[in-house]
Structure formats: structure tokens, C-alpha cells
Amino acid sequence: MASCPPVLVMYNPVCGDGTAETFFNEHVFPRLEEAHIQVTQKMATGAAGHAGTIAFDFLERYEGNVTVILGSGDGTLHEIINALSLVALKGVRKNVVSSSVRVVLIPCGTANALYCSLFKPISMNEGPAYKLKSLEAFIMGSDVVPLTLTVTTLSAPPSSKQSCSNVAVSAVVTSTALHASILHDSESLRKELPGIERFKVAARNNITQWYSSHVKLLPTPSAQAVEIYDPDQKTFVIHKDSDAHGIVDVHGPFAYFLSTVNVDRLEPAFRITPLASDIVSSEVSLDLVMVRPHRDPTFVMDTIEARNAFAEKSVAVLTAAYQDGNHINFRYTDDGKMTNEGTGPTVVEYIRCKGWEWIPDEADERAHLVCSDGAIFSIVKGGKAACSAAVPADGAEFSVYV
Ligand SMILES: Nc1ncnc2c1ncn2[C@@H]1O[C@H](COP(=O)(O)OP(=O)(O)OP(=O)(O)O)[C@@H](O)[C@H]1O
């Protein structure tokens, strides 16, 4: 008789509003028992970073495709993916090139971006059945969807003595500018505001900030192009500033700079990259949303007044993202107002490409922050961050039951 594939159950007891354990005891374990699913190991994470160690140890002990039933938000999944992607496994997997990890997601975190994108919520107050959709898919033997990952390398300047670079793998979001600042600041608000409200408070505190950087957008291999969304044609077109290699140079300052893979939203209703699900990409790519205040026809000079005035436009962009992703249709009128009509410059530049390089201005400290699925990194002075979308060719492969 064939042995059962290994199943690891893991939940983060402190994620979201801290109810993962209760949810597992009341809903997940009873359902697994009812379905006669044998659990190989169950663990609660004990600290930040523990999820990666648990998954790593489990893979080194059990052969074959592994299923991880994970009760968490996006951050804990990020830890697992990073722990398995960036280190060579030993034990039973010593000479194994590729290990497949199939994840059953139980959304217990604050934002649950990946889950909400895979299982679109109908109302804001979905009941327990909504949270059990991936588990039901696993029990029914449904399909899995492979995850596209982005690999971001944070490197020091070539002249630096620091030779080692930092690498972060993201399954949801890689960002700089306002979003990275929000995630950086919101962590300290977690105790006080356990829900998504803390992101809004952190957003208000950072909304007037601009970020100085030079960006290179990198073309997808098959189209050999960086694409930009054209709201007139309602499709992606080749970026007009592409050079002979398909690379596009973009200069700041930036108010917003955020890329996603696998998701069209970062919270149940915050559809920041709506085209990820409306116009599905046929190749490995990421969706990138940028807001550059200089595109505003009324922009004259970078002053405190100009930044305060532009903050209202940034708020309008973020608010429209909550209105089914309508921010991507905004254009400027000649007098700098925002409208859904006309032929003025788009407020948001919505890009589809293979990756990007972010080279922050040395003098702009906040422009050095990078967010990878909620984890915050800092680029060293004179360095840069290079982010590229990939489906892992070797090493771990991740997929989710849907
Ligand atoms: N026992 C623990 N004690 C303290 N921190 C923990 C523990 N277990 C995991 N963590 C940390 O909790 C953090 C938050 O988890 P996670 O990101 O999954 O939830 P969230 O932030 O509430 O949701 P989301 O990422 O969807 O917004 C993770 O970064 C992880 O390092």
C-alpha cells in the first residue's frame, strides 16, 4: 500500500487578531479528522522565523511532495518560502534537485493578500466556510496553482568592501516608497491596532513623502519588452521609452512604487494591481504600479506646499484602489485635476515587466527601504535593489490548493 504523503500543519498564533489557534481547534482539526486526513506533524510557530525552521526540518525528514496546511498571513508564508528557497536541503533531500511544497492556506493574518486574491471575498465579513476553501480543495483533491516568485537582491555599491548581498524572495509584493514606509511604520502599531486600520494610520503619517530614485524596468524575455497599460485601448502596449534592449529608464521622485506577483489585491478590497486578474499574463512577469508627482501638469517645483497638495492626489489614488482598482483609469486634466476621462497623462503608470532595479538617491534615507511581503530591508548607501520575477527552476517549488 502506498504511504500517505506527508502533511505538516502549522499556524502562527500571533498573526492577525491572534485567533489562529482557536480557529484550528474549532474548524481545521475537526474537518481533517472528518475527512480522515492523517497529519504527520502539527506545530504552532513560537517566534518570528520559526515557520521557516519548522518547514525546513520537515522537508529534510520526509520524502516526496509535502503538503503544508498553514494558518497565517502572508508574512509567515514568506518566511517559509525564503527558508526553503535560499538554503540547500540535506537529510532525505540531500541530492534532490526540486522539492514540491503544496500549501493549503488558512487565512488567519491581517491582510491575507494571497488568499483574498485566490478566493475573492464576496463580503467583508465572510464566515468560517470562506476561510476553509483551500482546505476543502485539498480534501477534494483539486488543482494546485504554482506560485510565481520574485527574487530581490539588495547589493552594495561596487566600490564597497561589503561583498555579500541580501536576497529576499516574495510571493506577493515587493515595494519601495510609500508602501515600504507604511509597512515599516505599521509594525510598531500592531499591538494597538491589530487589524488593517494600522496600515491606514501609517499611510496618513507618510502620505506627503516623495522618494528620490532612478529606476530601470526590465523587459519580459518572450515579448522582449516592458509593457504599460493604456486605458484608452484597455490593454497593455509596448512602453514608448524602451531602449534597443527593451529596457526603460525612469526617473523620480516617486510617491508610490509597488510590484506584485500572484495577487491583484493586498487586502480584501484593496485592488492595487487589478490587471493581474483582469488581463492575465501569459508569461512570468510582475505588475508594477508607480506614481510620479512630476507627471502632474501643475507641478512646478518640489516644495513642501507642492508635496502637501499632491498628498490629496495620492490619497485619491489609494482610495480608488479600494473601488475595484479604479485608480488605473485616472488621468490629469490640464489644470491638474483627476478624472476618469480625457486624454491627459495617466496619474498611475501601470507596468508589466520581468523586473526592476531601484537605485535610490544616496541623500534620501527613506528611499532606501524595500518591502518584501511585509518584511522590511534597507539598501546600503550607494547600493540598489534588483527585483526579478521567476518560477523556480530548481530548488523548492511552491503551489497552493485552490
Ligand atoms: N509565536 C510568535 N511570536 C511572535 N511573532 C511570531 C510568532 N510566530 C510568527 N511570528 C511572526 O509573526 C509575523 C506576522 O505574521 P503574518 O505576516 O503571517 O501575519 P499578519 O502580519 O497578521 O498578516 P498579513 O501578512 O497577511 O498582513 C511574522 O512576520 C512572523 O515572523
TrEMBL record:
GO terms for molecular function: lipid kinase activity. One of its GO terms (biological process) is sphingosine biosynthetic process. The keyword Transferase applies. Residues 2-155 form the DAGKc domain. Keywords: Kinase, Transferase. It holds the Pfam family DAGK_cat. PANTHER family: DAGKC DOMAIN-CONTAINING PROTEIN, SPHINGOSINE KINASE. This is ATP-NAD kinase-like domain-containing protein.
